[in-house]
Specification:
Order of helices and strands: HEHEHEHEHEHEHEEH
Shape: globular
CATH class: Alpha Beta
Mean pLDDT: 86
CATH topology: Rossmann fold
Radius of gyration: 23 Å
Helix content: 40-55%
Number of domains: 1
Length: 184
C-alpha cells in the first residue's frame, strides 16, 4: 500500500524553537498584571510543534538570574537549554537562528519584537520556514506580516504561581484554647 492509497501524509519536519525569554515574560506579565505568571511549556510546545519533530529548544534570558528549575525542566523534558545573555537576547538568538538555518526546516521564534524582522527575512531567503509565537497585544505587526505563520500565545499557555503567604504560628492559639478549657 502506498502513501496515495492510504491518504496519509507523513510529515518529517525538524523544528527549532528559540525563545526571547525577557520579551515573552514581559508580555504575559503585562497581560496578567502579575509577575509570577509563567509559560506552560507542557501545553505550548506540543501545540507549536503539531506533528513535527523538535530539533532544538533554546531559552535566551537577559541577566544571570535564571531559575535552576526552569533550566532543569527544559533540559529534562525537551533537551532544551537556557542561555544567559549579557544585555538583550536579540543578537544571541539571531546568531543561533542563523547557525541552525541549514539544520532545520522550521524555526519558531517566540518573541513579538520587531527587531527580528530582518532575521525573519534572512532565514526565509535561506529557505527556512519561520513562525512567530507571541502574545498578540505585544507583538509587532511588521513581524507577523513577515513570518510564514503566527501562533498566538494566550492565557491557555500560561499559569500563575500562587504566592506563599507567611504561616502564622498556631501553637500559641492552641495553648490559649487549652487554658480557656481549664478555666471553665
Amino acid at each position: 500500500m502506498t502513501q496515495e492509497d492510504t491518504g496519509i501524509v507523513h510529515i518529517s519536519q525538524s523544528v527549532a524553537i528559540l525563545i526571547d525569554g525577557n520579551n515573552i515574560e514581559r508580555s504575559i506579565h503585562s497581560e496578567t498584571n502579575k509577575q509570577n505568571t509563567m509559560l506552560n511549556f507542557d501545553t505550548l510546545v506540543p501545540r507549536l510543534l503539531g506533528n513535527r519533530g523538535l530539533n532544538r529548544l533554546v531559552y535566551f534570558r537577559e541577566g544571570k538570574q535564571i531559575s535552576s528549575k526552569l533550566k532543569e525542566r527544559l533540559h529534562s523534558n525537551y533537551h532544551g537549554s537556557v542561555r544567559p545573555c549579557h544585555k538583550s537576547a536579540d543578537i544571541p538568538l539571531s546568531i543561533k537562528a542563523t547557525q541552525l538555518s541549514n539544520k532545520v526546516d522550521t524555526i519558531i521564534i517566540m518573541s513579538g519584537d520587531s527587531d527580528f524582522v530582518e532575521l525573519v527575512r534572512h532565514l526565509k531567503a535561506e529557505g527556512v520556514r519561520v513562525e512567530i509565537a507571541a502574545v498578540p497585544a505585544t507583538t509587532s505587526r511588521l513581524l507577523t506580516d513577515e513570518a510564514d505563520h503566527f501562533h498566538e500565545i494566550t492565557s491557555n499557555d500560561w499559569f500563575t504561581l500562587e504566592t506563599k503567604k507567611p504561616s502564622r504560628k498556631s501553637a500559641p492559639r492552641k495553648k490559649q484554647a487549652a487554658s480557656a478549657d481549664v478555666k471553665s
